[in-house]
Write a structure and sequence with these properties.
Elements lengths: L4 E4 L6 H21 L9 H9 L9 E7 L5 E11 L2 E9 L8 H15 L4 E7 L3 H9 L3 E3 L6 H5 L7 E7 L9
Parallel strand pairs: 4-5
Antiparallel strand pairs: 1-2, 2-3, 3-4, 5-7, 6-7
Amino acid sequence: MTEYSISSCTAPPDTDKMNGLLREYYALMIARVQEMGGDVPTGHEPALKEFWDQIDEFLPPEGRLFIASDDDGRFIGCGSLKQVGGGKGELKRLFVRPEARGTGLGRRLVDLRIEAAHEMGLSTLLVDTLTANVEMRGLYAKLGFSEIDLFPESATFQRFPALRQYMRFYELKLGQGSSSRH
């Protein structure tokens, strides 16, 4: 069985490895929106450019970026967290490559971001996902996230209004008793 290590980035990650991972992530999201009947741009380059333009928002002290790697150093998964104001943080870009799904890696990437949000002093975590992403919707429910109507701080909500009908929005209150160990 392959072992995966997870690192918290303190500087921008390797561009080629990260772009490869993000291209797979964006391709999956585009395919899922199209399966639901949505019309979305199919090019990855604007989304990649946006990620790199905003990289400082996902690095300490402003945010967190966790990357999972396999034994050969290949990026196998990722998840990011950024502050959106008012004591809130937004979870972004949770992705695990197909060969590592079902290993608990996705949950670990969510748990690490919840722990980081606590360390950053955030009071609420927000996340959006596609309606068709039943795996993520189930995981968020197991971890104590509550479905909400929407949150206007959502980067997806702001940048892609046409996608709103295909999205689900969740929040997790990080009160005194809150923990990522559910």
